[in-house]
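W.,

You were right to be curious about this one. When I first looked at the sequence I had no strong expectations either way, so I just let the prediction run and decided to look at it fresh. Below is the sequence, 317 residues in total, followed by the output.
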Amino acid sequence: MGSRVAPLARLLKHRAIYGKIALYPAISTMFTSSFINIAQRTTLLAGLLLSASASALPTQARHAPDLATLINAYRAAPGRCAGVPATPVPPLAVEAALSQIRIVSGTFLEPALENAGYPVEHAEALFISGAADAAEAMQALREGYCARLLGTDIAAVGTIRAGDGWHVVLARPERRELPAPESIGEATLAAVNAARAAPRQCGERQFAAAPPLRLNRALDAAALSHSQYMAQVRYFSHKQKNGSVVGDRALRAGYRWRTIGENIASGQRTAQEAVQGWLDSPGHCANIMNAAFVEMGVGYAVNPARGTLYWTQVLAR
């Protein structure tokens, strides 16, 4: 029995509703992010689908794990796709979070999933209307979206039954590997000293090469405490809400300084990425190249809900 696909959906079923998000390093005193919006044509598509079938996206949608099982069975033995032989691919992880978001006209998938506690590098939603059960929905998906179902750039799937419609959410989760804390100091120091070893232009200022820095445990402690604070309260600033600044934190850690500076960042996954982000920012670059600084400390912490890394570097004499 063929799938009963509504006429409008039949015309549009080969077009996925999708969104994409790109995060860029935060190298100033506020977190920086850039969203690549859903294309206007797919936003219009979502609106057309919504108006064509008011019951397609009800307030309450239920999880349909059987469709995800059928998708993985198809990936294991696809047979043909678009008329040509297809190669089997590994199964997708069936993630509950992908089945619990509400998709309506204008939904941006990546931010919605991040708000649900499931950050992703990429996500897309496929929509089928009029299929009475998972088997009929799967047949329509094979006819219209076989290439996406067999994609090797996705790793997770969730399915949603919404009235007489079905959403399939395909995603590539955000990488959660964390740098080893015991290696952060040396890795950051190496990147910083490599930058200081040669003359550098920081915005409009030209800096001569500067002597290498050395690590200081008290400055490490001051840096880590501020990263932990920012990660805990998701607050990106040099000044904490109690008014303390880097000089206060260094003194509390036992470092009596004559001159001091601080760089912070959010979102970078490695020490090298954090240092490169600072070097790309004139003010942070100037801190790194300042020959008045002779010691440094560094630390990162992770927001447990979002997995976001917060970095702090303290430079001092």
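Here's what jumped out at me. The chain has ten helices and 15 strands. And, maybe more interesting for your project: Residues 218 and 253 are 5 Å apart (CA to CA).

Coffee later to discuss?

I.
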